[in-house]
């Protein structure tokens, strides 16, 4: 156990407490950025001027008519920018563009006394466009060779030799859709300027420091003239890692030019049509298996749909490449990555950050190839798991692979998988028009930012004379429970009851140079920093206590607000703090944390970029209706690894929420872009909750059992915990694989079906049709060809027949 991971006796971490704002959330009293409008006098409202072209030059922009609209105060255009006219860090995202790159791209912003006046004003701004040819789909981009950014490759061994060695080789292509974040709170900023020109932006941002930097470069100010605060977010999910900056800059620019507070909040239609989403990916692959179903080699090219600008597409792609093997040992690998430039929103971070897309490639391959190999998918996955001593394709040792095996076995046992699969086989044999299936899939997810420099955090802990504690840290709260965990960490490190510790909103003038709250690393990084600050204060107080209690400082214990000298007397925390103040001992500290032992070379795509892996396993059972493709998720069993949990209820919520969000991505949420050649080309047709199907209560699994993996202490992280934010999303692969197997059950044994992603009922229907046509084609096949006996854990319920070798599975792209 390291000193970072070691817990004192009776720690506050590990206690089951509700989210610190749970009561505020459910009573509507929690303040979000936009709630500040009603509390701020003289606010102006901003509204975008947008057009309907996927790609066009702006040939004329005349704001004058807008200024005649009652209530309009000012129109912001490129001429108003004193600094750099760019909303990003790559220099490819003009804040006020002269070339429109997607439908709805804002070219100017109108400020008015009311939102309605701003809207009318925006409609009055005259803009002329010269339309240009556009690229809307990733396949169009591949054909046109429209790419952006670097084209990295992860490789190990000799992929051609691996393929040559393989007994079975399959090739295929696969396209998976993106996903809209659909956080409940849309993007929002309120900016104010004080008498000295200091800019204060309240913003719904996961990355206050970067918001600060971009506001500063747009306004041509140094960072010390800009402060960004984030009270909390009503969800971020990665969508507020890069995307808030430009909107914050518009509000700040408006505030500096008018001297009045400016509020910019996107309405839902604007948010969904203007802001980036999860990247859809296209994958082309060739895989070789040994005769006993071991993956020998994988050769793949992943092309992400980056949209109009780079944004976070490069790191997202890097994470996809670093997760393409998921939990499986593949000796010879070559995976190329590239980023398509398309005339769509600029795709960005989304829970999992490319990891899900990379992992889906191998899970799809295994799901498609298992029937062709004649090996039960549960067995095929298990057989390929990493074992101790093996490295990832990018050269990082896989630590604790046995924990994944434990989780796998636990799910098989607690989920009664063998018995239920036998029941399912009986059900399927007696139901012609409904089929069930149960699939089990693993998750292995690397924790830390790939870019080593981001793995640092700071904190500022203040102890007041009355003994109460105020904690500032660099992380933002988006519902994930980071603040709850940080309160627990501070209380544990100071030996205080939870109610003595309070959290202040995240601000760049309290903790500078912070990383985004992202990559699930918020608790690891900020927890390390908060613990460091608290321990400095505790060490100073121990010296004071030592003098008071007559024991060595090392023998002073802090627990639950009581300070005890081993073998000596005791005093209270409050009394000790009072004494320390009188003795002129500093009662505040800044804390710092950097994750040790990381290195990553992005030019060779080799290194150990992650501190550890988080593991998880899910078993999902579905039932598919053969007439419509409609389905239900009957039961889900999850065992997930959060190390020694910092906050078990919070972690449980993260696992459930992540799983459901993943199931939404894979089975329901269907982003449709207009790919016609008509005037609405490039328009997002699914712009609202009415057309974009989100998971809701009615799609929840009928039974959802979640357990935390036991004996999972993580030595390298704060109080032995592991990150939880993103990994559970990928547990939802099990739902997709179950749908595939249920669809296949409409065909003869051994049927391999291609399933579009998202596997909407419509897509499942087509998979069912595909399986049925397999029946017709094979009607004349002689029964009783030799089956393969699956080995332990042997959950196979039906005899399997290998189908013809060297089949080239082929995926219907889209539906
Ligand atoms: N949970 C809630 N409720 N809301 C969110 O926006 N974002 C997810 C995850 N869980 C999110 C969430 C994403 S994308 C990440 S990276 C992590 O939380 C970030 O927080 P952490 O680093 O504190 O886990
Ligand atoms: Mo999360 S996608 O890293 O914000």
Automatic annotation (TrEMBL):
Superkingdom, taxonomy of origin: Bacteria
SUPFAM superfamilies: CO dehydrogenase molybdoprotein N-domain-like (SSF54665), Molybdenum cofactor-binding domain (SSF56003)
UniProt keyword annotations, A-Z: Oxidoreductase
Composition bias type Basic and acidic residues, residue spans: 772-791
One Pfam family hit: MoCoBD_2
EC number in record: 1.17.1.4
Record region (Disordered): 772-815
Name used for this protein in its record: Xanthine dehydrogenase molybdopterin binding subunit
Provenance organism: Luteipulveratus flavus
Gene name of this polypeptide: xdhB
């Amino acid at each position: 156990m390291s000193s970072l991971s070691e817990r004192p006796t009776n720690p506050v971490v590990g206690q089951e407490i509700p989210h610190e704002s749970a009561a505020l959330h459910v009573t509507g009293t929690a303040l979000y950025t936009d709630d500040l409008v009603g509390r701020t006098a003289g606010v102006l409202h901003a509204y975008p001027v947008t057009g309907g072209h996927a790609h066009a030059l702006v040939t004329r922009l005349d704001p004058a008519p807008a200024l005649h609209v009652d209530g309009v105060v000012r129109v912001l255009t490129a001429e108003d920018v004193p600094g750099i006219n760019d909303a990003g860090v790559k220099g490819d995202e003009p804040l006020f563009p002269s070339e429109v790159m997607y439908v709805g791209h804002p070219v100017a912003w109108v400020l008015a006394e009311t939102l309605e006046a701003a809207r009318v004003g925006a409609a009055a701004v005259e803009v002329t466009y010269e339309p240009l040819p556009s690229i809307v789909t990733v396949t169009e981009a591949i054909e046109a060779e429209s790419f952006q950014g670097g084209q990295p490759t992860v490789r190990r061994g000799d992929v051609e030799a691996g393929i040559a060695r393989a007994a079975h080789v399959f090739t295929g292509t696969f396209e998976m859709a993106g996903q809209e974040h659909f956080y409940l709170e849309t993007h929002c900023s309120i900016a104010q300027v004080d008498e000295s020109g200091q800019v204060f932006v309240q913003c719904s941002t996961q990355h206050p420091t970067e918001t600060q930097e971009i506001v500063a470069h747009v306004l041509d100010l140094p960072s010390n003239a800009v402060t960004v605060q984030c009270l909390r977010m009503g969800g971020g999910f990665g969508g507020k890692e890069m995307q808030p900056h430009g909107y914050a800059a518009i509000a700040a620019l408006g505030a500096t030019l008018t001297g009045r507070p400016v509020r910019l909040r996107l309405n839902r239609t604007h948010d969904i049509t203007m802001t980036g989403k999860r990247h859809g990916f296209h994958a082309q692959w060739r895989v070789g298996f040994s005769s006993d179903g071991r993956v020998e080699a994988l050769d793949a090219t992943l092309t992400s749909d980056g949209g109009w600008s780079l944004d976070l597409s490069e790191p997202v792609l890097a994470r996809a490449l670093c997760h393409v093997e998921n939990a499986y040992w593949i000796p010879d690998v070559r995976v190329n990555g590239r980023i398509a430039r398309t005339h769509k929103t600029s795709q960005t971070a989304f829970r999992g950050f490319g990891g899900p897309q990379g992992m889906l490639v191998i899970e799809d391959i295994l799901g498609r190839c298992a029937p062709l190999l004649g090996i039960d998918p549960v067995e095929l996955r298990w057989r390929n798991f990493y074992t101790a001593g093996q490295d990832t394709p990018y050269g990082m040792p896989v630590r604790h692979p046995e924990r994944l095996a434990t989780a796998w076995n636990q799910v098989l046992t607690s989920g009664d998988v063998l018995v239920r699969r036998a029941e399912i086989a009986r059900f399927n044999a007696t139901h012609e028009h409904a089929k069930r299936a149960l699939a089990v899939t693993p998750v292995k997810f690397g924790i830390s930012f790939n870019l080593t420099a981001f793995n640092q955090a700071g904190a500022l802990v203040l102890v007041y004379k009355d003994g109460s504690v105020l904690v500032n840290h660099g992380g933002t709260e988006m519902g994930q429970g980071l603040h709850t965990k940080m309160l627990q960490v501070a209380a544990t490190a100071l030996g205080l009851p939870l109610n003595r510790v309070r959290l202040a909103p995240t601000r760049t003038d309290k903790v500078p140079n912070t990383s985004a709250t992202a990559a699930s690393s918020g608790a690891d990084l900020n927890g390390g920093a908060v613990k460091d600050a608290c321990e400095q204060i505790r060490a100073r107080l121990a010296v004071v206590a030592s003098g008071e209690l007559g024991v060595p400082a090392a023998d002073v214990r802090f627990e639950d607000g009581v300070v005890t000298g081993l073998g000596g007397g005791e005093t209270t925390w409050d009394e000790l703090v009072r004494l320390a103040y009188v003795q002129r001992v500093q009662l505040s500290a800044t804390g710092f944390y950097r994750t040790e032992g990381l290195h990553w070379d992005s030019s060779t795509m080799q290194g150990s970029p992650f501190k550890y892996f988080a593991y998880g396993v899910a078993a999902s059972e579905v039932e598919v209706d053969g007439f419509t493709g409609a389905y239900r998720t009957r039961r889900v069993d999850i065992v997930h690894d959060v190390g020694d949990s910092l906050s078990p209820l919070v972690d449980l919520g993260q696992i459930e929420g992540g799983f459901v969000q993943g199931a939404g991505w894979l089975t329901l949420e269907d982003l449709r872009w207009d790919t016609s050649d008509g005037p609405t080309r490039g328009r997002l047709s699914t712009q609202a909750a009415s057309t974009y199907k989100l998971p809701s209560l009615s799609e929840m699994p009928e039974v959802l059992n979640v357990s935390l993996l036991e004996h999972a202490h993580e030595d390298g992280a704060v109080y032995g915990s592991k990150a939880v934010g993103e990994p559970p999303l990928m547990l939802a692969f099990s739902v997709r694989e179950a749908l595939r197997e249920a669809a296949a059950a409409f065909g003869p044994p051994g049927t391999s079906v291609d399933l579009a992603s998202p596997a909407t009922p419509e897509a499942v229907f087509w998979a069912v049709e595909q399986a049925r046509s397999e029946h017709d084609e094979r009607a004349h096949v002689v029964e009783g060809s030799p089956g393969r006996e699956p080995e332990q854990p042997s959950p196979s319920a039906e005899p399997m027949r290998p189908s013809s070798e060297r089949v080239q599975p082929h995926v219907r792209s889209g539906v």
